[in-house]
Design brief:
By secondary structure, this protein is α+β, with helices and mostly antiparallel strands. It has one domain (3-123): 3-Layer(aba) Sandwich (Aminopeptidase). The protein has helices at residues 12-19, 29-40, 90-102, 115-123; strands spanning 3-6, 45-52, 55-65, 73-81, 106-108. Strands 1-2-3-4-5 form a five-stranded mixed β-sheet, with helices on both faces. Helix 1 (12-19) packs across helix 2 (29-40). The N and C termini lie far apart (49 Å).
Amino acid sequence: MYEIRSATPLDFEGINFVSAHLGYKNLSNDESKRKLDQLFNSETDFVYVAESKGIIIAWLHLFLARRLASNDFFEIGGLVVNPNQRGQGVGKSLINHVMNKHQSSIRVRCNQNRTEAHKFYEKISFENKKVQNVFEKQSHTKE
């Protein structure tokens, strides 16, 4: 059994541990704590965790995306479930929690290589709205 709740500053180690399962570089606990503190100080970012027996087994980062020429919406910035708990409804419960709490449409962007994530979102009634390319240009300014 698990509980879904808003994350607290003390959750940074558990969030950092679970994050490693998504394939991101493992942040130091200090980096993870700093990033989490920044999100807590934002009025448009929300972090939720699923906790079982005092251990973080999943987290979800949700943010309000404001657009100049279209309606605002919420977007999932990250959703990670520990592989040992996948297939047990934890991710779906986190999404249902934020849907009920924020009463808004929610978007999520998935890397095209994450086919299991695509299946997960389609299974819980997300609709694939478009395929896009992401372009990035690095700044070369000196600080």
